[in-house]
Amino acid sequence: MTKISHEVAQFLVRQGCVIVSTKDNKGYPHSACKGIVEIDDSGKIYLLDLYKKNTFANLKKDARVSITAVDEHKFQGYCIKGKAQIILRDKINPVLMKAWEDRITSRLTQRVIKNLHEEKGHPRHPEALMPRPEYLIAVDVQDIINLTPQHIK
Fold first, then answer.
1. What is the maximum span of the chain, computed from C-alpha positions, in angstroms?
2. pLDDT 10s digits, 45-69
3. Is 90 helix (H, G, I), strand (E, B) or coil?
4. Which of 20, 102, 113, 137 could make a disulfide contact with 47, Cβ separation 3.0–4.6 Å?
5. Is 10 inside any structural domain?
6. Which residue stretches of the chain are H helix?
7. H or E stretch including 32?
8. Cα separation of 81 and 49, whole Å?
9. Three-state SS annotation for 122-139
């Protein structure tokens, strides 16, 4: 497992969502938005998935995954490659579930504040409509690719 630097971990956690890519049964990439719940001291990344659909089916067949996050304003980003493990809802550590609930509450609060400042986004509050997560994706990082162009670093 590759250790994630504090800088990269903080960058990933600051993003509202990341793109998680898996490979479907025909060999095509499948990408979906997921929220990072936590990155532990060993560098393992934890993401919760609200649905048992394409990502779940793909991970059951092939545990290889990539996680991509970009900050367009800062022109910075990372692609994390690793192996995922599926942890079903009844086996999820309650501390991670609480961390997810706290992140959703924070996102909802930020959306309400932006709406009060008339920075209208989505007309409803999608975070309030989210179902409880179906499973946890725990990713052991194997490679970190800095997407920032070399001449900007």
1. 47
2. 999 898 899 999 999 999 999 999 9
3. helix
4. 137
5. yes
6. 6-14, 54-61, 94-116
7. strand 29-39
8. 18
9. CCCCHHHHCCCCCEEEEE
